[in-house]
Protein 1
Amino acid sequence: MSYIASRLSVVKPSASMAASMAAKALRARGVDVIDLGLGEPDFPTPAHIVEAAYQAAKSGQTLYTAAPGTPEVREAVASKFRRENGLDYKAEDIVVANGAKQIIFNALMATLEDGDEAILPAPYFVSYPEMVKLLGGVPVTVECPETTGFKLTPSLLEKAITPKTKWLFLNMPGNPSGAVYSEAELKALGAVLAKHPYVLILSDEIYEHIIFDGRQFVSFGKACPELKDRTLIVNGVAKSYAMTGWRVGYAAGPAPFIKAMSTIQSQSVTSVCSIAQAATVAALNGPQDEVTRFREAFERRRDLVVEGIRRIDGLTLPPPDGAFYAYIGCGSLIGRKTPKGEVLTDDTAVANYLLTEGRVSSVPGAAYGLSPYFRISTATSDEVLTEAVARISAAVAQVE
Ligand code: PMP
């Protein structure tokens, strides 16, 4: 008899973490693998942010803080939303947590009853369905094909809503597709949501600054202010400021959400690390030039990868509008044979083949709810990306 709770039986470990582990295991055996499984900026955290953390630790900011965050960090987040997104939230409308992931987990824990549905436009961030299931909900995958730019449309949304719908998840720029919604597209989704007042909206905007070709990011909250009383805007410092390991995410939303999430936090993690909160204040209030520098580097890498992948016969890649991933179509490889005679039955087989023969780790589209694709992270140096594309190209060329 297992002593592990049954609620865990439906939950898979993170596919991107698994890809990264598989790459590490091969490396430990001496195989030279390029790991493009996990997505995190390869830049160091900007020096002024690290300095602020050091000063905070030295000056005694080393105690527990209030569960939803220090007054300073909540104020810094509120002014970020005003300055960058044109959203009017007060410090009391803000909560910080240990990463955007914990924000999402807390939001679901605070709201999901058994059997409640969460609409997940696919391809989606791998953790969404697993968190929903872990907390008793039912993930409802809505496949958003390449022809819609991997984006949810009003008619797809309308069809997915049932009396049991509790949440709609949106993520822009999207992981893994990089899709960015225009203001008009968000308003059109908002018009559908206006007809279903019991549906809550979680807008995950963690890649907001990693957006290309001169696009202007529009927050869901800005496009649909009439839905403010049921919208949770989720964001964090991980991607914009190269701070994945600091573990700070934040959200703005209606008072009942914030209160419930703070209660959960006070009885689970107490608070976010006090020093990481001080670093977040410096990140949000300080100079933003490194954010621009990171964005430019990610755009250059996007171009490099799009150009390289497009030259490979058998793969497709519409240029991502943001984030730091390439969601590569591999439909024309399915059903074909590797040099060892194994049939590539699905995108998981393709990703495995690319790992063993191409020595590049990627994550199969199955993990994101939309096949046949595989995702590579472009958050690594130009040299490594160039080599990875060459390896993928050589491996694909051998498929019969
Ligand atoms: N949302 C999305 C869409 C992500 O891709 C990620 C990280 N991969 C997260 C949330 C998690 O962010 P954090 O590191 O702040 O928990």
Protein 2
Amino acid sequence: MSGALTIVGLGPGSADLITPAASRALAEATDLVGYGPYLDRISEIRPNQTVHASDNRVELDRARLALSLARSGRRVAVVSGGDPGVFAMAAAVFEAVEKGEPAWRDLDIRVELGVTAMLAAAASVGAPLGGDFCAISLSDNLKSWATIERRLKAAAEADFVIALYNAASKARPHQLDRAFDFLRNLKGGETVTVFARAAGTGHAEVTVTTLAEAKASAADMRTLVIIGSSSTRLIDRAGRLPFVYTPRSENS
Ligand code: SAH
């Protein structure tokens, strides 16, 4: 049997947000490759499936391992949180293919999509992505802080709703405050700001605040931050979290 490689999105966390197609790709694999905590999310690993757990930072090594296994005839699933194409493993696999052995290009490689954190976070508060939006990763492991600021500035000037991935981590505790300070100079302090932690899981925590009040200490590595456009607004509800939405029409 010829080998194959599927990069599978596990969604934001809860089992019922894994697509049936992703579950099928996992069930059909002989080998499961990925970051340990993502592999731990797979509810059923059969005895004949081999698990290759690795650290979070070694994405290219992991991609090469997966490609080598597929080349040797295995059916490999590389797992990724959320969607594998959003700040995740699918791009690492294609980078390895581009730079690696020519034979890897002939492998049956597929991407099995998943629900990305931005959508789970948005759904948990209403419809903040109802107007034009963009997504920016705040991690400067793979790009410079100057690039991040240039993109934040462009997004603010274009009045996009901004979804911030990799908003905070232990290794980068100050960047989110730096990003908030930077954006406060470009956008109104009253701009709606949402912190969604573990969105799309049974223990989601969502807070709604303003850009003026936003503090990095409210975020960790499982938090997605949404910063509204000038038309993003709240619908207040007594004793409950307000709905957050961005109207689709410029004029409403
Ligand atoms: N491929 C993933 C994103 C990987 S980057 C996806 O499509 O969702 C990792 C970042 O995603 C985290 O630092 C956090 O900002 C965000 N994230 C992942 N899962 C999340 C969740 N359940 N709730 C909120 N943010 C999450």
